[in-house]
């Protein structure tokens, strides 16, 4: 059982995004939400199976009041493997304000026996940010607050890219390319709309070598706002 605690800053367990929850197909997850905020909070999950009492919505009463608790039950049945996410649905009487304040996280359901990569990264594209952070000067270092990812040349690196908010984004990674899941098309940029996810693997530095390889949204206004980060590929 996981104990998810909200801080007054409205974060799951004090981080934005909240903790990445990883389960496997066949698992039943019991998630206890302990609400330490002054507003009602819920957890609404995508991708897994649950009955209406675990929907995380106002009209079903499936939320924790201030200083209260609520327990959710998710079943990762057959066909639920993949990258999903969870988020609040009720804070401040709004469907979206909790998300906008940071109440979201990744939910990964693995297939049984699925090999895991060497490194995994979760990036939320939310409004003009990655994980609520920006990098306006477009170089690593002070003032660049987006996640600095790192891997060694040759390592298999998995990106879990999830979007929230009002904009569509086009995730691009410099120097690397991958097969668009479900197709045989090799791409280096992929569109992610609100609440959609994409997951793909790259081999760090494959055919291009080490360096600070930029990742960014390719929507111009979002680039201008600093929706930029770096994958540091080490020798
Ligand atoms: Cu964007």
- Going across the biggest sheet, name each strand in turn: 10-18-17-12-15
Shape: globular
Number of strands: 18
- Helicity, in percent? under 10%
Distance between the termini: 39 Å
> Total number of helical segments?
2
The low-pLDDT segments are 1-8
Class derived from helix and strand content: mainly beta
Taking the sheet with the most strands, its summary is: 5 strands, mixed
Overview of the molecule:
The chain is mostly beta strands. It is 4% helix and 40% strand. The protein has helices spanning 97-100, 220-224, and strands spanning 2-5, 21-24, 28-34, 44-45, 69-75, 82-87, 104-110, 119-126, 129-130, 148-152, 156-164, 169-173, 178-179, 186-187, 189-192, 197-203, 211-217, 228-234. The strands form 5 sheets. The protein has a 5-stranded mixed beta sheet with strand order 10-18-17-12-15. A hairpin with a 2-residue loop joins strand 8 (119-126) and strand 9. The longest helix is centred in the C-terminal third of the chain and has 5 residues, at 220-224. It is globular, with a radius of gyration of 18 Å. The model is unreliable at 1-8 (pLDDT under 50). It binds copper (II) ion. Residues 125, 167, 169, 217, 219, 222, 227 line the site of copper (II) ion (CU).
Summarize the structure.
With 235 residues, this protein is mainly beta. It contains 2 helices and 18 strands.
């Amino acid at each position: 059982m996981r104990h998810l605690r909200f801080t007054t800053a409205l974060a799951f367990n004090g981080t934005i995004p909240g903790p990445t929850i990883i389960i496997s197909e066949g698992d039943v997850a019991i998630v206890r939400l302990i609400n330490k905020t002054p507003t009602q909070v819920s957890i609404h999950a995508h991708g897994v199976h649950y009955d209406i009492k675990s929907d995380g919505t106002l009209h079903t009463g499936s939320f924790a009041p201030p200083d209260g608790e609520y327990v959710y039950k998710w079943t990762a049945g057959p066909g639920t493997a993949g990258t999903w996410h969870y988020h609040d649905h009720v804070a401040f009487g709004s469907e979206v304000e909790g998300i906008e304040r940071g109440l979201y996280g990744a939910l990964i359901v693995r297939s049984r026996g699925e090999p895991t990569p060497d490194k995994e990264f979760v990036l939320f594209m939310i409004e003009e940010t990655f994980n609520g952070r920006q990098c306006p000067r477009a170089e690593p270092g002070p003032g660049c607050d987006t996640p600095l990812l790192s891997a060694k040349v040759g390592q298999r690196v998995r990106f879990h890219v999830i979007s929230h908010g009002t904009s569509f984004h086009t995730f691009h990674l410099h120097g690397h390319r991958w097969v668009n899941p479900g197709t045989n098309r090799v791409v280096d940029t992929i569109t992610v709309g609100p609440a959609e996810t994409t997951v793909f693997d790259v081999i760090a530095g494959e055919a291009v070598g080490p360096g600070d390889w930029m990742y960014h949204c390719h929507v111009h206004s979002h680039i201008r706002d600093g929706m930029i980060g770096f994958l540091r590929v080490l020798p």
